[in-house]
Specification:
The structure is a single chain. With about 270 residues, this protein is mainly β. The protein has one domain.
């Protein structure tokens, strides 16, 4: 995973095009600053939609894929290790039970780039482990980690995300994407959990607690807190779930992630 924070030089880039990107970045920073201001009540939803349009235009500018967007420090910005994928994501809190998410995937191939907007789906099943996500049917979240893996000349991009859900529970997700015929595609059957294949990992737990999901480079695994009910009577009621002090891990094996339970991650 690469996270940008250092401005890169742009040798050979047209000065006018570069200045246009800088102007777009400055405008977006101002819009995000205003979106998250507490005294901007009543204006956020209009800003939220305006940012989508402005970000689309910014990512369509020549040279935008190579830009670091370092001024946009209030949103998720990820880049794949192979240099072909970038992911931008952010949220707006409407109320204690209503979060709106936006995300763009930007692809680069042979010097050209293309952008794809992820459009949130609605309905009671969007958080299911086998909900079939698509570009236009996405379970909204902020992406904060991107793991690049390769198997048999196929590149797998694993995205780790956070969804604040509502006042009772939060979620962490792990899902796998590939680029097929120039288009991002969420894969199915990518996680082997106790002899069963599922499309993704969805961890739901109390909104009052914190749960960690991260890629551990030393262990070469995605490591996460094992969640359990605070008391057996709360089994299945996720507002009473939290870390129990143990850890589970996912190991990338022959093109899928395989669960290893109760791993020792204390000194990693």
């Amino acid at each position: 995973m690469l996270i940008w924070g250092i401005c890169l030089s742009t040798p050979g880039q047209d000065d006018a095009a570069y200045l246009e990107i800088i102007r777009a970045e400055t405008q977006l920073k101002s819009m995000f600053d205003q979106l998250y201001r507490q005294d901007a009540a009543g204006l956020q939803m209009e800003l939220y939609h305006a940012i989508d349009s402005a970000f689309t235009a910014a990512l369509e500018l020549p040279g935008s894929f190579d830009h670091t967007w370092s001024k946009l420090n209030q949103i998720g910005k990820l880049a794949s290790e192979d240099g072909h994928v970038k992911v931008f994501s952010w949220l707006y809190q409407v109320s204690m039970n209503d979060y709106r998410y936006s995300a763009f995937i930007q692809l680069s191939e042979k010097g050209d780039s293309e952008i794809f907007k992820l459009r949130p789906a609605s309905g009671e099943h969007v958080h299911d482990i086998n909900f079939e996500q698509e570009i236009d049917r996405w379970d909204g979240k902020i992406y904060y980690d991107l793991v690049t893996k390769k198997h048999r000349r196929k590149v797998f991009y694993t995205l780790v995300g956070a969804d604040f859900n509502d006042a009772k529970t939060s979620l962490k997700t792990i899902e796998v994407m590939v680029v097929q015929r120039g288009t991002p595609l969420f894969l199915q059957d990518q996680f082997l959990i106790e002899d069963n294949l599922q499309d993704r990992i969805v961890l739901e737990y109390s909104a009052d607690l914190a749960a960690t999901v991260r890629y551990n480079e030393t262990m070469d695994m995605i490591v996460y807190d094992h969640l359990a009910p605070l008391h057996p009577i709360y089994s299945g009621n996720y507002q009473f779930y939290g870390p129990d002090g143990s850890y589970d891990g996912l190991k990338f094996t022959k093109g899928i992630w395989v669960l290893e339970q109760d791993i020792d991650a204390r000194n990693e």
